[in-house]
Amino acid sequence: MVLEKIEKVNDIKEIPPEEYETLASEIREFLVEKISRTGGHLASNLGVVELTMALHLSFDFPKDKVIWDVGHQAYTHKLLTGRKAGFDELRKYGGMSGFPKRKESDCDCFDTGHSSTSISAGIGLVAARDLLGGDEHIISVIGDGALTGGMAYEALNNASQLKKNFIIVLNDNHMSIAENVGGMSEYLNGLRTNEVYTNFKTGVKQSLNRIPGGVHLANQLKKTKSGIKQLLIPGMLFEDMGITYLGPVDGHDIAKLLDVFRKARRVKGAVLVHVLTKKGKGYPPAERHPARFHGAEPFEIETGLPKNRRKKANYQDVFSTCMVKLGQRHEHVVAITAAMPDGTGLKRFKNLYPDRFFDVGIAEGHAVTFAAGLAAGGIKPIFAVYSSFLQRAYDQVLHDVCIQNLPVVFAIDRAGLVGSDGETHQGIFDLSYLSSIPNMHIMAPKNKWELSDMLKFAVEFHGPIALRYPRGEAYDGLREFRSPVVYGKSELLYEEEDIALLAVGSMVKTAVEVRRRLKEMGYSCTLVNARFVKPIDIECIKMLGREHKLLVTMEENVKSGGYGEKVLDAAAALELPVRVLNIAIPDEYVEHGNVDLLYQEVGIDAKAVTGRIIEQYITIR
Question: How are strands ordered across the β-sheet holding 65-68?
């Protein structure tokens, strides 16, 4: 086993070249075997095995620095830096992260998790190096899908001004999570397939080398700005920006990769190395279905099928069905996604109403302002987006939607704790950052039927409105409670006395269990489905505050700026004779792990909540 020789960083440099192909094969076998057990990002990692090996053969880590855009494709990097044993606990609580983490290894120089950030971070590391007089190489690896993000272009604009070496590796697999869209995708398609350019360049060089003085002429032609690239591909984007372009090069040919990295090291200034890779390479199911193996659950290696077949509908399924029905009933309803048609449940809408479906690529800020333009033009846009990614468009939500009070619907998926992807993906801030914006309205459904009812309400609403719902299996309890959604009004589920639970969205399910536990202990307990986080139901709070000793707010959001603080402020302003207990996620980043375990760790599971309520209630009896 060649892989067994890799115990620490730079051990790969002791591997003879004739064993590179074997090592690549063993790495792929290792990744498939481990991820089939733990789950994780498979297709993207299989596609960059040789690229990662070439980087580790060409550079000296941790002195040299590599920033992995998004970071979910860094598994081979982790293997080659001595973290093989960590794969048994990959993405588990307390185990190895599925993303680069500075606290995990000196070879991880920058934490990543969201897209289009690596070039900006790389330029910062370059500036720090130059200010401190260092000589290390800085490499940013970015995918072609990430180049649809505006931040990448802002960074490229600045990279063109650099005078010292900075290497950008464009990992081009013709795919992000979904199929790439837009002008950059078309542009890269042209570069990939331009055999005329490649053949002509080679032919001219060979011809010139055969005539007297031709070598000098070939070198001059290579150096000039108006060289072969400019003659055959006018307006070469990267070259015209002042960034040296090398490639395209086969991303699975280590010899060619080593050669191009030798050239890239010598460039004074920014250089972009265009590498062509195949997502899912080496594992047929992932090659055929790369999107399915982007973030895979544990699967059977022989078939690629999930080990745990899902039996119940999840919230994305419910949203998908409701969107199709809304599309049938309202011809002005359109759907927007930022490169997540499958993940958000919009694929069926896309197939049925292609003219009313818009995938803007990894560009959340653009998606929001695009939605604002649609709304200003008389269309009803529904932007389906993960909670963690909507953070990237805060200014556009505030400036372009809410100031104008435009009727944009934000379908906020993956709200709350999402589990194994960790800090960068937990959707625990949306209630806080959205409720700070005037004109924004926020709802959260208690179960799958209320998600449908709230989405219908949102489509008829005249103003910005957000509907947030969690990842995973849709709660089908409390079916008997399905009163109409009324603006700004909560839903009283059980009315008793002493203790009142006011739960938001996904926490209603937990509140049902908390109430059961309290009842078994002899406590009287009211349960309210908050429904609206903004505006909160002042009349309901006033009524509960006068008839109960303790109000308990429950939300799957950080405490700061959340629903609980609003209830606490309202109770104080109304001078209610009641104590308020806020159950929320502590104001800290939550690491990766199983969601049920994370509930326990942050203290919002039924057992922990019940204990805190009893402890609080005893002090006021």
Answer: 65-68, 138-143, 166-172, 270-276, 244-250
**Rounded CA gap, 110 and 444, in Å?**
35
Instruction: Choose among 9, 11, 47, 54: nearest CA to 28.
Output: 47
Whole-angstrom distance, CA of residue 327 vs CA of residue 318: 14
- The pLDDT confidence band at residue 177, using thresholds 50, 70 and 90, is very low
Mean pLDDT along residues 526-543: 97
Residue 392 appears among annotated catalytic residues: yes
Classify residue 383 by burial, with Cβ atoms within 10 Å: 0-12, 13-18, 19+: buried
Angle of helix 195-209 relative to helix 214-223, nearest 10 degrees, comes to 140
Exactly one of 26, 50, 136, 364 is catalytic; name it.
Answer: 364
Active site residue 448: no
Q: Which of 392, 414, 515, 534 is catalytic?
A: 392
SS3 label, residue 256: helix
Instruction: Give which of 453, 452, 525, 445 is closest to 490, Cα–Cα.
Output: 445
Residue tagged active-site, from 65, 279, 281, 468: 279
Burial letters 82-102, b for 16+ CB under 10 A, else e: bbbebbeebbbbebbbbbbbe
Q: Which alpha helices (H) appear in 359-413, and where do they start and end?
A: 364-376, 387-390, 394-396
Q: Is 423 a catalytic residue?
A: no
Predicted pLDDT at 220? 61
Burial class (CB in 10 A: 0-12, 13-18, 19+), 389: buried
pLDDT at residue 312, as a whole number = 83
Q: What's the chain's length in residues?
A: 621
Residue 231's pLDDT is 44
Q: Which helix (H) or strand (E) holds 107?
A: none
Q: What is the Cα–Cα distance from 407 to 401, expressed in whole angstroms?
A: 8
Strand partners, 314: 473
Q: Which residues pair with 468 in a beta bridge?
A: 412
Half-sphere exposure of 191 (CA within 13 A, CB side): 29
**Beta-strand relationship, 138-143 and 166-172:** parallel
Q: Residue 142: what pLDDT?
A: 96
- What tens digit of pLDDT does each residue of 348-386 get? 999 999 999 999 999 999 999 999 999 999 999 999 999
526 to 384, 488, 544, 607, 616: CA distances (angstroms): 34, 19, 9, 18, 16
Q: What is the 8-class DSSP label of residue 379?
A: -
Report the DSSP beta bridge partners of residue 138. Answer: 65
Q: How many CB atoms lie within 10 A of CB 521?
A: 11
Which of 359, 351, 411 has its CA nearest to residue 380?
Answer: 411
pLDDT of 195 over the 90 cut: no
